[in-house]
Amino acid sequence: MSPKPLLRPADEQALTSSTMALNIALKTAFSIALGIALCSSSVWAQVTSSEAEWKETPAAAPPAFELKRLIPFDVTVGSALKWGIDPQTISIAADGTVRYVVVAQSSGGVVNAMYEAIRCATEEFKTFARYNKDSGWTVVADPQWSIMRTAANSRHAYTLARQGVCTGAAPASSVGDIVQSFKQPEAVR
């Protein structure tokens, strides 16, 4: 007695067709995944190469600020501190960072100011110098870029970036646009 075949010819042909369809689907999926990976790596290479080419413009001395020129902005609802930015201290540096003096005033009248920069492309900020009434400006010895969303004491910088210093990953197109965004925040959003 001869052994019975496991598959009938029609079943064998259907299985071969299914296997071929599966092979084609897998090859297509692999090709798509490979294409995405290659595109991603070239985009990543462009991002990292442009990042490697970025050169920070040296910080100038902190600009003079005046309390009467401050444009107020809210950092945290119900905060005891009143925040403001002096529009005459805002500049867009050649490296694409936005530099400014921001002031925090307590309800008791204590004034602290920071000369800072925001780098919109990387969502980072840096403090170059701090000011208080008794000692004036004190330059930070080795200022470092910190990510706005995770750094301690960065809520004000994050608010500035979102309210008008940055347009996506780029600085606003002009200092005038930044000032306008703080004078009329409802018009920007």
Description:
The chain has about 190 residues and is α+β, with helices and mostly antiparallel strands. The protein has 4 helices and 10 strands, in the order H-E-E-E-E-E-E-E-E-H-E-E-H-H. It has helices spanning about 10-55, 155-165, 175-185, 185-189; strands at about 70-75, 80-85, 90, 100-105, 110-120, 125-130, 135-140, 145, 165, 170. A hairpin with a 3-residue loop joins strand 6 (about 125-130) and strand 7 (about 135-140). The longest helix has about 45 residues, at about 10-55.
Tally the helices: 4
CA radius of gyration is: 29 Å
Principal-axes geometry comes out as globular
Regions with little confidence, pLDDT below 50 for 5+ residues: 29-49
Per DSSP E runs of 2 or more residues, the count of β-strands stands at 10
Category by helix and strand content:
alpha+beta
Largest sheet: number of strands, sense, barrel closure = 8 strands, antiparallel
Order of helices and strands: HEEEEEEEEHEEHH
Give a nutshell description of this structure.
The protein has 189 residues and is α+β, with helices and mostly antiparallel strands.
Question: What secondary-structure arrangement, pairings included, does this model have?
Answer:
Layout: H1 9-53, E1 71-73, E2 82-85, E3 91-92, E4 98-105, E5 111-119, E6 124-132, E7 136-139, E8 146-147, H2 155-165, E9 166-167, E10 170-171, H3 175-183, H4 185-188
Antiparallel strand pairs: 1-2, 2-4, 3-4, 4-5, 5-6, 6-7, 6-8, 9-10
